[in-house]
Structures are given as structure tokens and as C-alpha cells.
Amino acid sequence: MNEAAAAERARELRRIINRHAYLYYVLDAPEIDDAVYDLLYRELETLEEEYPGLRTPDSPTQRVGAAPLEGFAQVRHLEPMLSLANARSEDELLAWDQRNRRLLESRGIDETRLRFVVEPKIDGLAISLVYRDGVLTVGATRGDGEVGEDVTTNLRTIGSVPLRLLLDEPPPVVEVRGEVYLPLAAFARLNEQRLAEGLPAFVNPRNSAAGSIRQLDPRVAAARPLAVWCYAIGYSEGLELQDHHSALEWLRAAGFRVNPDIVTVEGVEAAAATCRAWEERRAGLDFDIDGAVVKVDSFALQRTLGSVAHDPRWAIAYKFAPTTVTTRLHSIEVNVGRTGVLTPFAVLEPAFVGGVTVERATLHNEDDIRRKDIRPGDDVILQRAGDVIPQVVGPVTTGETEVDGRRVSRAERHAALPEWSMPRTCPACGVETVRETGEVAVRCPNRSCPAQLVESIKHFVGREAMDIEGIGEETVALLHDQGLIENVADLYALRREHFVRVEGGRVVALPGFGGKTRKGADGEPEIVEAKRADKVLAAIEASKRRPFAAVLYALGIRHVGAVTAQA
Questions:
Q1: What is this structure's pTM?
Q2: One of 121, 295, 319, 458 is an active-site residue; which one?
Q3: Which of 64, 395, 406, 469 could crosslink 222 through cysteines, CB 3.0-4.6 Å?
């Protein structure tokens, strides 16, 4: 076979294999068995090995095979990936609809009955897929909504992600939004396999999916049974679609996996009923959902409604009632934040709730603790608010509990426990705390409080602020404990020798920073921590080019959040 004939056969094989991959992964309706598929795949592999110039980015043989990465590059989304406001009850959903109606009426639009699309809110990792002329070019995580991480090599390994759109005339550019997740049955099998291999089981499907996509070696991601539901189009060129349900039909036609149970309904009452139906069938699904998403269908009305801060007005997440458990509250401790606010938190008997083991939970403030009448030693109801944030609902005062081997009345025990009060002095610096008139917050007024200094530096280096990658909470605490940084200005005086140096051929690292070696690309020993230090210093240098709004936010001025800093 000459090269021209090989090229024609390779094109035909790519078309056939991609079609059967779509039938298998997206429609779950295979037409050929695995053995036939493998024969076609091996034939294409052989042709591409003989004629390397025939390899194309959309070839099914290129899903896996990239070398491990050193890190993930950042990529700016073509259109921001907005977050969603929450409705935690049917009343809040109805109130959202009424607000939108009033806004539309104020702009001369009288819609007596809006049409909505109701979708399951998959508990996974949000992603963006960019296709240029029909070929997948970039896949990224949501990140902060504006900038995510380029995880293209890992997303290519997922069979339900099309490498080329199934369209004769694809648009020049289209950005597709989706959610990567692990089906529950596949998650169970994966954990069985890990336990059989002597590896620890993963805690929950969501964290497993997110961790898989952030593996530097795409072969690891390829070995995980990941799947994708696609649910929206972000940026596009050359697409003329009038509403969201038409966009979903376009996604299906283009080869994307779209949940078949997404429905279009007339009126918010029907949307609420659909949300209730999703909640009732939640336990029988093969994927985790933590709510339903209700969207105004019309794109014209979406544009009119617009967004506020990072949330679109035309969509809302209807959150399901959280899972709760009962556990023991051992003690109430206090954190000191960057603005000096003392925030109490619960130290709990470890409890498994909502897919994770929880040992600590915020208690907000002293007034909230008094209102709920929570006391150290209580049995308490613990929930994950929105299936994310651990929250103590209140004490359990019915029935009996065991204390020192005896059964006692919970109500009597609760009444005998002392009430908790906020400490009169700062636990970090010992200065007397204050509570200003009209505020619920108790503060440490000491601007030199070490806890406040550390927290302000953590805020300063954060992604929405100066975005200094490589300096996280542990590194900030480490540098402060070693006396290397007392304020944010000290970050810019750090040098390589503060982290790691070589003395007499021996690696001497900052305590807690390490001191390991490994073989580099040339086979010579390479100081891992030296490379890490260089990356940190490069990130500090790069932060000098951050926009003014980011710098303003990084300074941590009271009442100046990320949105205000942009104004």
C-alpha cells in the first residue's frame, strides 16, 4: 500500500472508529463487538506507525499517549464560566422567578409564563471544551471562572469526549461546557480494584473525578472510568441558536453526551415539580447529583436578564435537602482571621456525611451558637450544607446517649452542660478582644497579631489576588514560623537560599520544605526542592504584573471584595 492509499484508508478508519466510539460511549448502543473494534483500532495504529505523518489530533489513537506533564498551564476561558445562585426551597425558587419577571417588566417585556429547562446538577468537575473547525483544541477546568487549568491531555482520554465533532460543517469556534464525573457503579468497581491491589479506597466519586483530571500523567486519567455530561454552549462563532433546548439538541447532533432526562417546561410551578421529581429519584441514579438547575430557555431573555457579580440571573441551582448524621461535639475552638475576626468552629467525633468524613465544622459566631443552644459535649446534628460545607444544625435533645458506659437522657445531659462563651482574649496574641456595637463579630484589635499576619499573607497570595502559585497555607505558615516573612512585603525579599541550599554536597532545605533528590533528564541528581523554590520565586516575580484590581483585592481592605475591586 502506497502512502496515498494509506492516507485514504486511515481517514476511513478514523471515521468508522469515531462513529463506533460515539455509539458505545455516548448512546450506549454499540453495533459491533469489542473484538471487531480492536481489529479496526490496531489497523489504524499500524498505518500511523508506518506513516507517522498520517497521525492527526482527532485520531482515536491519540486519546492516550502523551508524556507526563510537569504542571498545568493556565488558560483563559473564551467566555466566563459563571457560578450559580442557590434556591434552598420551593419558595426561594418562586421568589427568583418573581424577581426576574419584575426585571423583564421594567424593561418593557411582559412574559406571563416563562419557559424553563430543568437539568440535574451533576456533582462532578466543571470543564470547558474548545473546538476549532470541529477539532478539540483545548480542555480546561473551571478554575476561578475566568481562568482554568489546561487539562486537554487528560480530557482526551475520556471516550465520551469527541475529538472531532460529528458535523459536516462545524462552526469555526465553539466552547462547550460539561461536567466530568465517575458513575457510581464504576466508582465501586474502582475502589474494589484499589483495595485488591493494597491501595486506599477513594472517599467519594466527585473528589476521585477531580483528582483524576488533575493527574500529570494522562495514563492515570485514562485508567479511571470517567464520563462526561455536556449541558451548555459558552462562546461560539457561526452558531445561530434561539434557546437553550435547541443548544442541547445541537450538542447531541455534534456527538456530545447530553443527559436524556433534561426537560423543558412551561412556568415555574412545573419547574419546581420537576426539581421535586429529581430529588425523589436521586437515590436510584448511577451518578451523584446535589440539586437541579433551572434555566430560562430563551437566549434573548437570558441576555436581557444578564448577570450580577459572578451569577447569571437567568439560571439558579435548586439545592436538595442535605444528608444529616448525629455525632458528638467534643469542643469549640476559635480561629483568628486576617481582619481579626474570631470565628468559632466545632471539633467533632469523626462522622461520614455526604460522601466525606467530617471532623470540624464552622459555627459562624457566638450569637449563632447561643441561638442554636450548642454546648461542648452535646450530641449534635451534622449536615453538609449544599452537600459541600459541613454545618452543625443543633443539639439532639431526644432519646438517650452513652456517656462513660452509661445510658443517660440527652435532654438532661444537655441542660447540665455549661454554655460556651467567646474568649475574652485573642488565642493567638493574648490581647483583649472587642465587640463593636451593632456587630456580631468579636475581633482582636492587635494589627501585629501573628494569626492575622499569616491569614493576610494567605489571602494576598490567593488566585483571585496576587495568584502566587506554590505558596499555599502550609508554606506561608512555614515561612512565618521560620521568621522569613512578617508581612506581604517580605515575600518579595525571598531568595533561593531561604528555601534550599547545598553545603558540602549535601542538600540543606528549609525545615519542612524537604531535601530530596531524584534523577533528572540527563541522569544526574536533581534537587526537587530547588526546582520547587525556583517555581515559587518565578511566581512571586510574575505577580508584579498583576492588574491593579487584583492588587487592591490582595491588600485585604475591609469591605473591598473581588467585585468591588473591579468597580
A1: 0.65
A2: 121
A3: 64
